[in-house]
Request: fold
Amino acid sequence: MKYTNNLFESIKEALNKKTSSDNANYRDFLKMEIGNTYVVRLIPNLANPERTIYHYYNHTWKSVITNTWVSTLCPNTYGEGCPIDEYRSKIYNTKDEAAIEKIKPLRRNENWLVNCYVVKDPTNPDNQGQVKVLRFGKQLFKIITEAISGDDADEFGSKIFDLSDKGCNLRIKVEQNEGGYPTYVASKFMSPSPLEGVENVEELYTLAKDLDTVYETKSKEDIQTLLKTHFLGEEQETPTASLDDEEEEYVPTPVVKKAAVTEEEELTEATAQDAAIQDILKDL
Reply:
């Protein structure tokens, strides 16, 4: 099978749908740092073009048991109800400001995944010439969708998934905003160019990851148990918690009562927690 305009139309149609995992192998992810510029070529899924870009939601918070970040794929990703969303909705509907404040650390994040060929990686040059998974948020999503079916479609369109010399690289510029977080608004697609060092384009298609399987899908019961144990602190046996951006898992220990802390200490912890989450997940 070859990359064609019909295949591009399938990718575009799937992306326009309101699409909608968690022991991801983060070694397959392209990790980017502030102050660097990365260059990649997006790789289409020839067999299933509608799966070229994987749109997903996940929940992330800091465990009250292990004090490590816990992440789980939200079932809304594949069209099912989520116990964590239901819990958050229930608390917000109470209009109880104190209760609402307590659940703010229980975050719901929206991200996308796509396979890419790494042309330039100043952070880890060994990645150059390899196929990696690009995880991104709303800023890069806007740039990609504008190139697919927006204002930039006439200039780029299907070229952004074309691995021939008619295809366009995506230059990802990671800058720092006023809040100290990474911003990707200066990123853009470039003029058509060949992929240097690639002798067999067909091989790149075979190296692409099955994005539907990057994250582990948990049952609603397991997610409910994860919530009760690692957020509400209820004592029970739990499924293994997924640690975002970690390659190992932590087996939960029995619940213990937390020591009392001052209001200032709680504020400091909340600020650090928010920064850590944003560093990991915000607009990647």
